[in-house]
Every structure is written in C-alpha cells, then in structure tokens.
Specification:
The protein is mostly helical. It has a single domain (2-65), classed as 434 Repressor (Amino-terminal Domain). 49% of the residues lie in helices and 12% in strands. The protein is built from four helices and two strands. The chain has a two-stranded antiparallel sheet. The longest helix has 11 residues, at 44-54.
C-alpha cells in the first residue's frame, strides 16, 4: 500500500504557486516540492497545514494505491 499525495493537482486546480502555498503554510518550497513529487512523506501536521491553505478536507489530499490481491 502506497499513499499518493494529490497536493500538486489540487494546488494547480486552484491556480496557486508553490511559493504562495509556502507562504500560506510556512513550509519551504523545496519541502513542498519534495512532497508533491513523492520524495518525502509529510507528517500529519504538515498535511493539516496544507489542507487549510488549500481549503480542502484532509482526505482530499491523498489516495491509497493498493496492490491487487
């Protein structure tokens, strides 16, 4: 099972730059970029801050990729 974060898709849909998301969350653009590109797994606190900045529910920020049985 792998968690895939949909932050980039939602951010782009809202026409928000990484820089603006960084300003709204207090998270560096490089860290946000790593999260968006699945290079880092964010903590719950970071996911919560991102959801608030994007004004979406927490569960909208990720999906779970499951391997077939």
């Amino acid at each position: 099972m792998k968690v895939i974060f949909l932050i980039k898709q939602i951010r782009k849909k809202e026409n928000m730059t990484l820089k603006r998301l960084s300003q709204k969350t207090g998270i560096s653009t490089s860290h946000l970029n790593d999260i968006e590109n699945n290079l880092k797994q964010p903590s719950f606190e970071i996911i919560f801050r991102i959801s608030q900045a994007l004004q979406v529910e927490l569960n909208q920020l990720y999906e779970i990729e499951r391997k077939p049985p």
